[in-house]
Design brief:
Layout lengths: L5 E7 L5 H12 L2 E4 L2 H8 L7 H15 L3 H11 L4 E7 L2 H8 L4 E7 L2 H11 L9 H10 L6 H6 L3 E4 L4 H20 L1
């Protein structure tokens, strides 16, 4: 049904560099970008100047209870219908997200990861969300206990490409380029 489309699922823990990879894919490869959690963030932005990951996790739980577990997938599918070419869906967080991405004929999973303490340092220095000033212990606890974080490493085990983001920006982007060479080679064959 979607033979002409390539769908890349992007997964990674908080602070791993997913957004950097996504923006690079957009800039270098003209990939359309979409985030699984975008509808949640947009809803929270209506009411709050700055929302937290905890707020987004809570709202996802409410949406899921009211509209079904696949509520975010329905929104992504609408977007996929409207676009051709290569699409990157950023922010996979649940095992069903993996199943959803794998439902497309031409699909790939990129797992962006890094050491937990390094990711925590990145998060606390960027101040993007209201809870970014958390302690390392709180950061570890949130990742271990939050429904929206626990499945990320397991999804990463199923990835077609693992991108370890613990070096320079050039090293990160070289890994992305290597993955894209493989994806584009398969597209042309």
């Amino acid at each position: 049904m979607y033979r002409d489309k390539i769908v890349i699922g992007l997964v990674g823990e908080t602070g791993s560099g997913k957004d950097t990879v996504a923006h690079y894919l957009k800039r270098r490869y003209d990939v359309d970008l979409l985030r699984f959690g975008r509808p949640l963030k947009k809803a929270l932005d209506l009411f709050f100047e700055q929302s937290s990951k905890e707020d987004q996790a809570w709202l996802y739980t409410i949406f899921k209870e009211r509209f079904g577990e696949d509520v975010l997938h329905k929104g992504v599918l609408r977007y996929v219908h409207q676009h051709n070419g290569i699409m990157c869906v950023n922010g996979m967080r649940m095992m069903m997200d993996l199943e959803f991405i794998r439902s497309f004929e031409n699909n790939y999973i990129m797992y962006v990861t890094a050491d937990q303490e390094l990711r925590w340092k990145r998060v606390t220095s960027r101040g993007e969300k209201s809870d970014d000033d958390t302690s390392l212990e709180e950061f570890k606890k949130f990742e271990a206990e939050s429904e929206t974080e626990k499945a990320i490493p397991k999804i990463g085990e199923s990835a077609d490409f693992v991108i370890k983001n613990e070096g320079s920006m050039d090293e990160l982007l070289w890994q992305v380029d290597d993955a894209m060479k493989e994806i584009l080679k398969k597209r042309c064959s």
